[in-house]
Fold these 3 entries.
Entry 1:
Amino acid sequence: MTTRPMWHSKPPGPRMPGTELAYADGSTRTDVALVAVDDIRAAADRIAPVAVRTPLLASRIQLPDDQTPRRIWLKCESLQHAGAFKLRGAYNLIASLDPDDPSGGVVTYSSDNHAQGVAWSARELGLTATVVMPVDAPRIKRDAVVRMGARVELVGTTTIERQARAEQIVAAEGGVMVPPFDDRRIIAGQGTVGLEILDQLASALSGVRPALVVVPIGGGGLIAGVAAAVRRLSPQTRIIGVEPEGAPKMRRSLDAGHPITLSSIDTIADGLKPVRPGDLTFAHVDELVDDVVTLTDASMRDAVLWCYGRRLVVEPSGAATLAGLLSGRVEAPESGETIAILSGGNLDPSLLHRWLEEESSRG
């Protein structure tokens, strides 16, 4: 793994509209400005009537090479409506649509909690929703989307296949596309997690800012939004992203200098399965994030069980940040406060049951 330099050794400030980015493969594109703190604050106001201000819980955790447990703060987005942070971005986008738009419905494609976030938000706002999910989507997530009143189509196993079908639906039936991560309104909504972390920690510890925030990476919407908030408001805070070894799309994209598409993925973390980061999310991570590290599936499984043993139901994707800390892949600072975002709690009960039985059989 290549470690990138700390952010504050890089020139500060977002790229401005119209800046041409030159990638390592010789390609270029004209960038747009990164999401601003004002965008995130506006999103916070928009979602405030419906979103849960999820708790920031202090926990004593024994980390590798530490003699005694240390305090780690857990941002429990697993307790959000629809079971994950995804509601924030989905609601922010859908609520910002023109109420007079004749289409009347929204369409999305998702393997994970974005599907539930869109279905929940559409129901709250009185809109119809169509969700394209993979054929191997966990039943707990498919059933939840249907219960929220959305129409579900099962297509393929990759983001590319799902996106293509969603675009066909929009072209044939109308509706507004709600992308899972690569949209400024989605990123701004997810960035409200970062605002809450800063506010909650400062309230708990009389103005203290975090030394480290650890964020899971699927398509990159959450880390892009959190980084857009935390980097501007707490410049000395380190921001580290984590993703599965079997789906290292952001790590490989950073190494390549531009977004790349993985030829295959293999991970238990269904919420971290996109084969490619978004152009916009990649630009945020490249500019604002200190490092991205990869994790084994075994470490995420162990982190799920650690949470369950403390009465927190967290899925593998949601426990990835804790897995990074418990496995030593992410090193907590010697001093200062560390935050791990538990991004989702839609854990397949049968999977949990199997893992608990395996643990019991080991004695």
Entry 2:
Amino acid sequence: MANPARDRYGVGANRESDEAYRYFVSGLGIDSTGRTTITHEPEACMPRGARFIRWRGLLVAVLVSAIVWVVGSGAGHGNAQSLRTAAADGPPAPRAYPTLTLPMTPVGGWQRIPVLMYHRVVAPGKGVIFADGYNVPPNHFAAQMQWLQVHGFHPISQIALFDALAFRTPLPSRPIVLTFDDGYVDAVHSVLPVLVNAQRHWPAAFFVITGRIGEGQFLRWDQIHQLELAGMDIGSHTVHHVALGRASRQVATSELVRSAEVLARGLGHPVYWIAYPYGSVTSAVAHEAADAGYLLAYTTHPGMWLRLSMRTMLPRIDVAQQDSLRRFAALVTVASGANSAAPIRRKIP
């Protein structure tokens, strides 16, 4: 969950993150009105035969499965812990998900792919803090997605991004990644209808604080399943929204591992993606994230150049409440390298 006291461009209000953002924006030459003039190129460093089954083996397998089911059902009635786990984590969503592994010999290089970072997409109202800059009004968000479509941008999934970085799998023209931190109900109420409708069916990644699932304005398990069944990616945002870069190694490891375990049980498949709360990460935390099984991990550090070697410290571009459509267009256009803002002339269904 966003902390109003935090600097919107990094792990806190500190000189290093401020300077990084100023460098990024100065490289784009974007002023407060959204006008752009390239002053320097942002540096890249900121930056996978039929088999026959004997009838006897099949019969044995069926019998064993039946026995396991009967025993498991009987044990479940007397196992309160099992009941609590099922109630807390929810049943697995019925969506097939591939098993992903790193290549033995990476073939990918630098790729220029903007990753947009959102938090809440919500209108001002009771219980909504609008002064912190993390909340984008729904009408602004809808206009931004329409602009992306008109100008030929193609949001891609986490798997597509991973395959591109690891195996140099081709991507569509003007690829872009949409990410949403914290796991608010806005994801279902305000975001999903804009991403999936008669005009488009776009993927996005939603990073969930597992310790807050079902609380207040945070997503419930049925809503998380709804997002995934609609083609969205679900990732971790730790258990308690901890600044991992400032936590002890024991706490950081627990937050990384436990959140992945909860999501894996609730979704029925491994979870390979994480966004660090506050963007707080160190090289040690990045290694811990890799050891915990995450393939892609996101910071809040500004940038657009990605490669596999930095997969657990990927940069993102913050989209804030105060960003006008003109400024949003300028950020995306220059960050993507698509310096011509002319719209793609094509029929939109």
Entry 3:
Amino acid sequence: MPGDNDIIDKHLVSVESELRDLFAANQTDPARFLRSAAHQFGNGTPYCDLSKAHMHDPDFVIFQHFRSTLDLIVDVGANNGMSAISIWVSGSPARVTSFEALGVHETSLQAVKAAFGDRFEYTIIGIGKSDSVCEFIIPVVNGHGLSAMATASADIHWRSLAENTIRFGALEDLQAGQDVELDLAFEEAPVTTLDNALAVYADLSDDERIVAIKIDVEGLEPDVIAGATDVLSTQRPLLLIESGCYHTEMIGKLASMGYRIARRQGNQLYPCERAEEALNTFFYHKDRMSDYQDIGLMPHPGFGAGLSILRRVRRYFQNPGHKKATN
């Protein structure tokens, strides 16, 4: 039986071509937004019982180190609220403020709000580099919209969109040899900068501090950073950015603001010279390193060297030549 990647490789070109054709056919049709209402959307409401919920992304284990109820974590690209749930599953009691561009997720976000009250706030608004209105496209497979794959129509990475459409929407049907009906849904959303959104919607008290920002906006991450100058320079939060390793200009901008790259190992972050190819990239401000060491998020100086010495000592005593010489 063909594996997942075999199926994706077999259908990738044809799916990409069909999505491009659908986009071209609908781009000038003013009724494209009305037709989107005929599709089903959303990923379902996340499980709100933290004792039974799971962490949807292992990188979210890092948030466990933010242990104060006065910590605020900002979630850009909330989807159905799964990031907030994962933050709390990690063990963090922080308050979460989420921003989501697509109104199709509001029912799920309302459910998270109902379950967690003041611990969670959300706003249906897109986050970008300026105040504007942005058009998003959502791939649709057999009438079900893959809202997690929504992307701005002005910046479509067609090959990635096609691959994700197959992997997360059409794979089982294609493996079974069944026909797959593709479509595109269109939605418009108001967009503002993260600095403006936080000033208007975050309701940050004098005692609270923004300790981390997670950004997952399907390729528009550099636009979010471009509109977040104030919060990055004043709060200097930890950043978790999906696909951050691929945006070289954004990495340069963050470096000019004092941010450095880190990689996750277990439940800690370690500085590294360059962004490794991975789903997520962490960025920390150099002035926060000692704070992160104090809370265990990053190792203290000399910790790595100490481990290295212990490993060398262990290898020495495990060496057969050493054992022979001492017998």
